[in-house]
Amino acid sequence: MLLKYLSFLTLLKCCYAYKILYVSAVPSKSHGILTAGYVRHLLEAGHEVTNVSPFPVNNPSRNLRNIDISEIRKFIDMSVIDVDVIMNKKVDIQDQIASISITENLWKDTVKLDVMQKLMNDPREKFDVIVAEWLYSDLVSGLASVFNCPLIWASTMDPHSLVLSLIHENLNPAYTIHHTSVDYSFTFLDRIYQLMSTSRVWYYKWINANKESEVFKQLYGSIVAKKGRVLPPYDDVRYNASLMLGNSHVITGDSIALPQNYKHIGGYHIKDTVEPLPQNLKEIFDNSSNGVIYFSLGSNLKSSSLPESIKRDLVQMFSEFKETVIWKFEKSIPDLPQNVHIIPWIPQQSVLSHPKCKLFITHGGLLSKLEALHAGKPIIGIPFFADQYINVNRAVAKGFAKRINFGKNIPRELRIAIKEMLENYSYQNRAKELSKIFHDRILPPGKELVYWIEHVIRTNGAPHLRSIALNVSWYQKLYLDLLLVIILILTLLFVICKYIFTLIRIRLRSKRKIQ
Ligand SMILES: *[C@@H]1O[C@H](CO)[C@@H](O)[C@H](O)[C@H]1NC(C)=O
Ligand SMILES: *[C@@H]1O[C@H](CO)[C@@H](O)[C@H](O)[C@H]1NC(C)=O
Ligand SMILES: *[C@@H]1O[C@H](CO)[C@@H](O)[C@H](O)[C@H]1NC(C)=O
What we know:
Blueprint: H1 2-16, E1 19-23, H2 29-44, E2 48-53, E3 64-68, H3 83-87, H4 96-112, H5 114-121, E4 129-134, H6 142-147, E5 151-155, H7 161-167, H8 188-207, H9 209-226, H10 234-238, E6 243-246, E7 262-264, H11 279-287, E8 292-296, H12 308-319, E9 324-328, E10 340-343, H13 348-353, E11 357-362, H14 366-375, E12 379-381, H15 388-398, E13 401-403, H16 410-423, H17 426-439, H18 445-458, H19 474-477, H20 480-514
Parallel strand pairs: 1-2, 1-4, 2-3, 4-5, 5-6, 6-7, 8-9, 8-11, 9-10, 11-12, 12-13
The structure holds 2-acetamido-2-deoxy-beta-D-glucopyranose (3 copies).
Transmembrane segments: 478-504
EC number: 2.4.1.17
Protein name: UDP-glucuronosyltransferase
């Protein structure tokens, strides 16, 4: 009996502790936060996690193995994302095609790292599932062939055409916005623009398909062969993911039809318990009698690269308010007014959750937006690049935000926006309303993340969730084959009619001749 019980226990253990490979090759801090969230939830659920990323997770658990690929920082120039570069329009970071080739090269370099080669070539390495972050390049999907296990995409943004085409199909550009779009409207011209940009990316992928497929073979062909298998064609692998977990929620994005294997888990990176404020911040909050405005431009953009004159004008402008201003900034500024505090590191969630926090001035990164929604705080968004425009535009459309464009006039525009946001309660009320919706879920997002990953493993890759749209080619979806048939029939009818008419004419003419 005891033996039976023990073997039951070991069975239970072996069925519940899965081996999960998490991969993210984006050396940007916000992606590190998302990585830490996955690792934390999977470890808490008792799984063995191998974390391949430039951000090793600090956790004493025996079930965690970090494979540090921070070396990839030498291959990618993060200074691309700099205030100066953006203000003076030196590079166009909104161009998706540029992003595709940058991240493709980044992944090629990542695979060549010794730690990656060791991991991929070791025949003892076995995983039940791979969770891979998608960022423009689909090449990482080859790991599913290397380890012969299901693949789950981790998407960091609201659902958009590029990711949805991997598990379903492109979004209709007539009512969805291309995710690096700077504006958010659907006039005639906007719809044409949306269609053009979707088609442009689609065309780029199409003409590069052969080249990419070659790279895929180079990266994984010999490794898979060494394991005694044949590498499947690239398209069979990249369109074969079992699931996509999205760092999104219907209130951060638009309400669109999604395939069964797309799951919203936005907010999973936020811890359940709010950590107490550190002493310096606690004192500032305690002293503040008129509320707090929190100002942070995120982790990529260094406020210290802001032009000197703008810094001075911002401080001057903040000093006119009776509210306390907490500014996340690396270096202090001399002669600060009494109500402005500059602090290099801030536990954002603790500040936003504080009842005295009235307003959040942000660059509009999705993590910051999710944290603002979690805490129910209105925002002023100053978008700089990537999906920040669309994040802010959508927040404005939902009624809990205002957007300011970055430029020389920013102190003046910000003054007007802050004044309106503080005086008009509709923004605060809307933020609270949306926060309530954000929290009203069947399961907390971290639990849902774990559930779906386990579901994929338990059901051998969850083929039942796969979208049937993937079985149909693009021309069939657009009924171009039907169009072709109709054109052929019409042409045929035309030719027949013409023939008959000619016959009749000849008959009539010959009749006349006889008469
Ligand atoms: C696609 O995924 C399923 C489920 O993980 C797997 O069984 C199959 O071998 C995969 N096909 C290819 C071509 O990788
Ligand atoms: C808070 O107020 C007290 C008393 O007025 C003052 O001594 C202290 O310096 C203030 N702290 C901060 C961080 O402003
Ligand atoms: C407050 O802001 C909302 C949203 O922009 C607007 O519809 C409303 O008219 C404003 N109310 C006042 C009193 O200005």
